[in-house]
Amino acid sequence: MSEKAARCLGTMFQRISIAINAEKDRLSELDGAIGDADHGITMALGFMAVNAELAKLDLARALPSEIFSTAASAFLDAVGASTGPLYATAFRRASQALKTDESLSPACQAMIVDEMRAGIQQRGKGQRGDKTMLDAWIPAAEAAVDAKAHSRDVIAMWNHILDAAETGANSTSSMVAARGRAARLGERSLGHIDPGAASAVIILRAMRDTFVDGRTGS
Known about the structure:
CATH topology: Serine Threonine Protein Phosphatase 5, Tetratricopeptide repeat
Largest sheet: none
Order of helices and strands: HHHHHHHHH
Structural class: mainly alpha
Helix content: 55-70%
Distance between the termini: 12 Å
Oligomer: single chain
CATH architecture: Alpha Horseshoe
Number of strands: 0
Number of helices: 9
Mean pLDDT: 90
Low-confidence stretches: none
Shape: globular
Radius of gyration: 16 Å
Number of domains: 1
């Protein structure tokens, strides 16, 4: 199971990288309205670095927790901006949690989403409504916890997670930024979707597609 799980996570990070790269121009355009116009490039570089490091691992021997630990170090080394420490902490939290359950069961998948949310929140100290990536990650994690509590199957769980993330990301257009570079704009940040929330949706969609296709643990 651990070999299958490790390969599943390797595929997941590949899909995330491909999806982010395909959307990097849109993400940078979103960032250009309220930030430095480099979010798409930064995220693409981060996940390319993750996959370069994962390619060095023997997935037949690696554990899922090792995949996330490797991803954390690689992302942080590649991305020096604030996004780097946020996702590095998210991946480290997921890695630590996976040491108690390496199965990648639906309950384990829900745990990964919630731990990633916790890592981002722990590092960034943000809350829902700040107009950040947490406006996608917090509702996604709540949906994951709810799905776990109600023992939803993989497809229903991930659709629930993604719907919540998309709704949360879209809601940032009506928010005034309270954190990050966008906070300097004040009311001028209204009317723009937060690029970090938008990229969170891309990540979660790639995660959903991977786990639904694999039906790991279902």
